[in-house]
Amino acid sequence: MTDTPSLSEPRLRPEGPAALAWIRAAGRLPGRLLPDWLIALTARTGIAAVFFLSGRTKVDGLIAVSDSALFLFAEEYRLPLIPGDLAAHLATYAEHLFPVLLVLGLLTRLSAVALLVMTAVIQVLVYPGAWSTHLVWAGLLVYLIRYGAGAVSLDRLWRID
User: Which of 60, 65, 51 is CA-nearest to residue 94?
Assistant: First the structure.
């Protein structure tokens, strides 16, 4: 008896180039199962939810900037070069407008750039210790800037993209 399998015995472990081909094919399978439009839609809605929900914490009622948001921007965030009340209004409105545009897939690249700039400001001037969270946000936004909104979007429907 030998340890070498005979020609009639099936191999349990592929070896050599055949194994690499099998591994490559298995690695490409998820990419084939996930269409580009679904990836873009997931990125758009995921990052939109983060910013929209943040914006909702800054308002009273439908869209009135809350006193607590005004206080935070004036006393805690203290952005240079811009008064706290103006920063509060701009950030609040941006956190409502751009996420809605992202969900609709309208002006996606512009909206993603605006939120990426906002992310950079938050990272550098407000919460520098939250880099891991901001990196995730930036990853989604950079994807949208590079690839656009995808097939399921108003950008594509209206041929803006």
Answer: 51
What CA–CA distance (Å, rounded) separates 31 from 147?
A: 16
The three-state secondary structure class of 65 is strand
CA atoms within 13 A on the CB side of 76: 9
Residue type present at position 155: D
pTM for this prediction: 0.84
Question: 69 near 61, Cβ under 8 Å?
Answer: no
List pLDDT tens digits, range 20-66: 888 888 888 887 899 999 999 999 999 999 999 999 999 999 999 99
Per residue, the 3-state secondary structure of the chain, as one string, reads: CCCCCCCCCCCCCCCCHHHHHHHHHHHHHHHHHCCHHHHHHHHHHHHHHHHHHHHHCCEECCCEECHHHHHHHHHHHCCCCCCHHHHHHHHHHHHHHHHHHHHHCCCHHHHHHHHHHHHHHHHHHHCHHHHHHHHHHHHHHHHHHHHCCCCCCHHHHCCCC
